[in-house]
Each structure stands twice: as C-alpha cells, then as structure tokens.
Amino acid sequence: MAAVVDSYLKWPASRKALLWFAFSAVVLLLYYFLGFQPRVNRLRGLEADFDQLGQKLRENQAIAANLPRVREEVALLDQKLAEALTKLPNKEEIPALLQTISDLGKDAGLEFLLFKPGGALPKDFYAEVPLDLQIRGRYHDLGLFFNNIGRLPRIVTIRNLDFGQPKAGPGGMELTANCMAVTFKFLEPGQQPKDQENKGGKKK
Question: What is the mean pLDDT of residues 114-130?
C-alpha cells in the first residue's frame, strides 16, 4: 500500500489530475445511472399520473356540473314516454276503451246496430285493434259522437266512413253510418312480430 502511495506521489501533476478526473467521471456516471436517472424517471411517471388524474378530475367535474341538466332531461323524457303510453292502451285497457266508445254513442243519442271488436293486428311496436260499427242517429248527433272520439286521450281513428240514405225517425231525419274505429295498443318486445324481432337481432 505504501509503495502505491509513493508511486502516486511521484506522478506528475497532469497525470494526477487525469486520474482524479477519471475517478470523478466514474462517480458522476454511477450517481447519474444509479441515483439521478431513476429518480427522474420516477418523477416523470408521477407527473404523467398527475396529468391523467387532473384530466379525469376535470371530466368528473364537468359531468357533475351537467348532472342536474341531465336529470331534468331524463325526467322530461320519462314524462313524454308516460304521455305517449297513455295514447296506446295495453291489453287490459282495451275493454274499458271500447266501453267508453259505447257510452259516448249512447250519450249522443245514437243507436248501435253493430258493435264488433276485431282481433289485434300487430304492426311494429304497436298493434291495431279494429272495431266495426254501424250506428244510427241524427246528423248532428253523429258529428258530436265522432268529435268526442277524437278528443279521447287514447288514439282512436275512424276509417271507411259511409253514410246511408237519410230516413225519417221519431226525432227527425236519421242517418245510418258504417265505419271502423281503430285504436292502438303498445306491444312489449316479446309480443312484437317475429320478423321485427329478427330485424332487431340482425341490427344488433
């Protein structure tokens, strides 16, 4: 060890400086690769995570800010859906609707010569429920009856309306009207026609 020290002391200053420069470079390189660089990489990773968390935070804040508006829109859609469904009675409500039509005719002073409900005709998400009618009464009473049907909350359309020749009756001139009253009912997905279900399956 003493011989190494003596040899080192005899070196010229330039050689000693070169040795210390090389030693310092090795130390710096070891520090850079073993200490500094890993910490820099760790810091960059934390900065990337911070940016991602900040972006998610801003997105969540934007969602939270829009939440009341979204809730209002959902409530409005629910209300519109409820209003639409009131115009399409389900299976259980059809008899009550037919009774309402019968009552409207009687209240208008009409006589039903034919009142024949038909079978439901599936279309898409709804089905048509026809009702063949033959009614007799005065012209204004018939007009009142059809007007009241048009004001029902349920959708009821009058098709194939045909008036017979007016004839004298106890209350004056009377008409016989033949028509078809058509109402509609909502079909659940399982009740819809098979071809529509197949189309829906293909779309999916």
Answer: 86
